[in-house]
Amino acid sequence: MTDLFRTPNNAAAGPVECLGLTFADDAARREHFLAILQEKLQDPAFRQIAGFPIGSDEDILALSDPPYYTACPNPFIADFIRLYGTPYNPAVPYHKEPFAADVSEGRSGIFYDAHSYHTKVPHKAIMRYILHYTQPGDLVFDGFCGTGMTGVAIVRGSENGGVVGLSSGERRRDSRVGSGGRSNRVEAVFTIRRTAGDSE
Question: Fewer CB atoms near the end CB (10 Å): N or C, the chain?
Answer without folding.
Answer: N
